[in-house]
């Protein structure tokens, strides 16, 4: 019987986003396969994490494309992006924390592409006057990733309602990112 690799990855992602310390035995059980079969697919946890990373990158790139981040006002593009990434936020949160284990290795090209596109969205918002220019686009992208991960964890732990995910992130991020309106000239008495 052939093993459906995509099913195994999605089962692993679902489990690990809830319990990041799950063992390979638990991953195999969640996928409905034996540990030996899992090991034939992925030589160990590192190989599984790398495969999950590729899945996460593919899903993020698809979300970026669906969000049409180069269209319309940048603030609306940010809203669309968060809404498109929401279904994948748990996996991204897991990968965000798991990435610390691979510190020092060269960054995956997929993350670099995604970073550039997200930073480009913030640059576009700065150029159009929508976003503050005193915060770098790279920092704004990191802030977005951090909010996505935090919201995913809060939803998973039941501290926040899933329906509030997009609203919470967008309002907090844009509240700090938007360029303040110019103060009205004071009336002279």
Please state the structural category.
Answer: mainly alpha
| N-to-C order of helices and strands | HHHHHHHHH
Q: How many individual helices? A: 9
Report the span from N to C terminus.
Answer: 86 Å
Largest sheet: none
Task: Kindly state the percentage of residues in helix.
Answer: 55-70%
Shape: elongated
Q: Are there runs of 5+ residues with pLDDT below 50, and where?
A: none
- Count every beta strand, where a strand is a DSSP E run of 2 or more residues: 0
Rg value: 19 Å
- Mean pLDDT across the residues is 87
Strand residue percentage: under 5%
Can you tag this structure with a few keywords?
mainly alpha; 189 residues; single chain
Question: Would you write up a description of this structure?
Answer:
This protein is mainly alpha-helical and 189 residues long. Helix content is 67%, strand content 0%. It has helices spanning 5-18, 24-31, 35-41, 45-67, 74-85, 89-98, 109-127, 137-156, 165-177. Helix 4 packs parallel to helix 7 (109-127). The model has no long low-confidence stretch (mean pLDDT 87).
